[in-house]
Amino acid sequence: MPADPSATLLIDGTWRSGTATFDVTDPATLQVIAQVADAGPGEALAALDAADKAAETWRRTTAEERSNALRAAAGRIRAQADSLAALMTSENGKPLAEAKGEVLGSARMLEWAAEEGRRANGRTTPDGPGGPGMVLRVPIGPTLAITPWNFPASMLVRKAGLALAAGCPVIVKPAEQTPLVGTELVRIINEAGELPAGVLQSLTTSRPGEVAGALLADPRLRKVSFTGSTEVGLSLLASTRDHLRRTSLEMGGHSPAIVFDDADVPATAAAVAAAKFANAGQSCIAINRLFVHRAVHEEFLALLLEKVAALRLGHGAAEGTTTGPLIDFGGLDKVERHVADAVKRGATVAAGGRRWTPEDAELTGAFYEPTVLTGADDTMLISSEETFGPVLPIYVFDDDDEAIERANATDYGLAAYVFGDGLARVWRAVDRLSFGVVAVNEAFPVRPELPFGGVKNSGLEREGGSEGIDAYLETKSVAVRL
């Protein structure tokens, strides 16, 4: 650990302080818990200089050596899972159990990246008139990874791990709301993997637009991987108008779930509650629109309300807490606006529907009660906008085609959920849903072995699975005359 806790800029192998700092707050109490370095364009370009200088050395490092470095880091992350989880909870607000699960999942993702780096094979082609052909897969070059606040560990590790495994130097820009756990993960990966200077770097900043802008204006940056809002993601894509570069985007979700009348209703109620209310609903794959077959609606609703009633709001570090605060009051305002609009248009609040007022006076953050709305229809704001909070609207349907059509009626296409027992019926739904990830009787469809990403305005390219490393590799064709 550095002597100066605000030395959170890793540039060219050295941890540095900036000329300024910014505060990091606990979203549950709004208390300042740390100050970190506030990088600007100058530090960003210094990091890019170092990445450009390190690119050839890291590219020439064998896949086995890169893999061993990532495996060593994964082991260190597991060993420090408790402290990393506590750090994440302090700045993000999610319950400790969720935070630890994310940290351990990050270690799995890093190991998967290590394995994929050793499988980034090319191929040979049959002889032509002059000789054979070869297809090579080569590192794309210096990469910028922009990571979100809602999953500050897993998103950082997934991006950085795949880039490093492919042979690309990577500059990480953690979200300004949650820079602490990201900084610590970078420290672990850098030290455990004994990485050369410039291969892994990190920029904490309260000025993401200025920092990213300086990097995007430089043609040496060959790749950007971003997770966050659709608005920002589309602006990053527009930045390629002068310098074409590979861009991976994982953006908004607005995920639907369909509950057929042959679903296991108790198991489905539990899965829906978990998929919706984890991280206080602040997930790009949280269920945002729940379509329930009329035949099981009443039974399902009763069981779902039992699950929701069992949720406990509080500080994420407190024993028994299942639901923490929203990240800020801007998020709370949107939640309230969606609920008010839905009620105005005829929805009924079956659970929650208001801010939570804790007994502990120190809990001054943006808490909102887990909420279920019945009688929702497609005219409501919540039907067309992603809420990103603990509110679940329920829509009743009678016909499978109707449910699928309504589920697809969105500009987004990240994740969808299907609950049912009949294989043919479920498969037809999976086939017709226009989403990059489909969960079948499953609450958490994110696995290292599966590619993750969306269609339409939810993103470009994939992370994870055997497809994930492709985003960090270029294809080179070689024609040989013998």
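(ticket continues) Second input and output from the same batch:
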Amino acid sequence: MPVSANRIGGRSVPHTRTAPLLDPATLEVIALVPRSTSSDVDDAVTAARSASAGWAATAPQERSRVLLRWAELLLQHREELAALATSEMGKLLKESRGEVDRAVSEIQFMSGEALRLNGETFPSATPGTLIYTTRVPVGTVAAITPWNFPIVAPVRKIAPALAAGNTVIVKPAAESPLSTLRLVDLLEEAGLPAGAVNVVCGSGSEVGAALVAHPGIDAITFTGSTQVGRTIAEAAGRRLVPAQLELGGKNAVYVDISGDLDRAVPEIVSASIQATGQRCTAISRVIAHEAIADELVLRLAAAYDELLIGSGREAVDVGPLVSEKARDDVAAHVKVAVEEGARTATFRRDAPEGAYLAPVVLDGVTPTMAIARDEVFGPVLSVLRVAGHEEAIEVANASEYGLAAAAFAGDIRVANEFAQNVRVGMIHINHGTSSQAHVPFGGVGASGLGPYSIGHSVQEFFTQVKAVYVKS
């Protein structure tokens, strides 16, 4: 049985306490991973802070070269990394390959950001004085990552942090730590100095809490549930350290009477079913104009019923959920929705044994039902019917979340009004909720706090502005 180890100070550090890691497709143990403690966090912080001054002083061109070499190594190890992500998280192998490709694109963009740490000059009220601003690293960053994107989520935090000259301690999700460990091995192979990035595996309650409270941590970036995000925000606020929080979503798509159903249905199915619906940007609410709702529900249900379910290593459309507990939680949400009056539009009920669940389309959902408010994180679509786009905007905004939304409308006025008035961080017109590797990514309300990730906006979190006055 493979036994994994933490990565601290450029070394693999085994642990006496371990926990079994399961393959969601088979429920077999694939590795034993460290159950680290606060003392391991102390060691990692010491290593990161020891490396901090040297990495911050490294020329931006060299930081850029290390990141580009890392991207090259990810491409060389694409199949290995994809297989690893599928084995620990369960997503389809083709999706894992796509995740590696997306990670490469984000690293490549961030390698350029190392060269774009620009400042400004200001006219002075005092003759002979030069005034300018520069950006400096925040210091040592705690990066707490989720299980649903075991490759791109760590990259999205590590790459911009390094580009800006910071050191990092990563706490990967307990469900999918192997990908992070391999990524950091490749990063050190790319030439990163020992200690600049460290990995401490373990639970959020023990390792995550110790990182957030540690006085040697200068900034915290977290992706995960809104509940945990609120706890981290409170802790960061008490310490007065910046926090970047990428949290949950209850993303809605509006299909207008002017929308093209031939275009909308496959886009909605894809955006809702990727990663078995376990994405913060997954579409989970379909707000349908009442004039086309019946046809839309029939098409969505038929498409869902045709999806092939099985291991991510097979030629299927839907893989397992991350665990049997996750499967049970999603099934419980569906059961409550039916008890509250929703109707199951899909016919298939069977699924392979284990952490699998047949995708479900629910019709007759109302905004007050729990299924319309709670983040379900599974292969479930809830259809809500409205009289027009004004009501659709109200329904879309009747959620504490505000991550992403979409609309399918041929009427440009309807599309524009929806885009302008829906309270989200990202809006997509006539396509699903996919993002791009150079565009800011984030949400509002219960979906996020702090500067957006991806793109140039990352500088707002991973650097601090310093104003400089020079008198001749």
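Agent notes: The first helix runs from residue 38 to 56. The first strand starts at residue 6 and ends at 8. Closing as not reproducible unless the customer responds.
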